[in-house]
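Problem 12. The chain below contains 140 residues. Write out its predicted structure in token notation.
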Amino acid sequence: MDSYFDSSRKKLVAATPEEAVRQAVVSWLKDAVQVPGHLIETEFALRTFDPKNANRVDILVHDFREGANAKEPWLLVECKRPGVESPAALQVQVNKYLRVLKPKFIMLSLGESAIFLGLDSSKKTYTRIPTLPIYPPAKP
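Solution.
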């Protein structure tokens, strides 16, 4: 069976269609968005913050600046292989994560297409944006 080396989990993982999407997004985040690899975590367990929550976020980009809240990551990414789910179905899944986390940005990756959302902190809602900003984030 083919596999990928997941640098976040530091192990080989099965080369499933969804894992291919996840690894492509991680590469894109590092190369195009310039996110440092040490801030990217794949298959992030939400039980880290809520012991009763068994859900896992596909990709989380931490915001480890001084004074940053660990429950407020820079980015949350949900990945699906092409043709599996609609953006609306992905949003339902992401809403479960938002009960625990409040990321600054959300990325819904459906294979080769993606939807980006940014937090409007004044309204406490997410609005669609054209793409992610280049990392590092601007200081508040």
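Discussion. The longest helix spans residues 17-31. Students who got a different answer should revisit the alignment rule from Section 12.3.
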